[in-house]
Amino acid sequence: MQDVVQAIKSSDYLVAFTGAGMDTESNLPDFRGPTGLWKNHDPRTLASTQALETDYSLFREFYSSRIKNLSNVQPHPGHHILAQWEKDGMIKSIITQNVSGLHAAAGSKRVIELHGNIRKMYCHDCGRPATEGAFLAGQSCSCGGRLRPGVTLFGEALPEVSFQQSDIELARADMILILGTSLEVYPAAGMPFMYPMTRVYVDLEATPDRRIDYVFTEKIGSFLDRIDRLLNRLD
Fold first, then answer.
1. Which range of residues forms the domain containing residue 208?
2. pTM to 2 decimal places
3. Fewer CB atoms < 10 Å away: N or C end of the chain?
């Protein structure tokens, strides 16, 4: 832990890369869980272009439930620590696979949403922006098209702008905090390894990886809190 603290202190360009484990610590229900409406469905098939085009009713119901689950969810201390580190100039940006918007809600400004944002709606057919309320109400676009959340579905490429922004940040970075991601969903999973840098990986299911310098199998919030306290002692 002391080695990680010293590495952070000496880093010139620190970035964070976050995944689903970052949000589940805010008690955001895991839609992959064994209970609820989706227990008989593979969420990966529901979060797909195929579902959007061939079973829109179920697609909309799935995403409506995810949006409603966000209504009572707040950023946890880990989100706030990253936001404060950005304010202090210690962290330069956050690249996130999450679509919840919780990093921004915590006050982080330089957030690259690699897979989009579930609260931003548009028409799948014509691209016109839409409201969340219209989507939840099952309305169609004025063109008659299907409304959808602004997230990257299975079967779609990552947003070009977000990917390019992430590439620029990673090329600059000399250190990365990989927080709460399985490192299994590509192409995002390969991004922390595109350039040489010091890597710290924190996840409840983290396992040793020869590409990663420091691996911690624990909750992200408690890890960041410990690091923050140690950093403050060194100031």
1. 1-28+76-115+158-235
2. 0.91
3. C
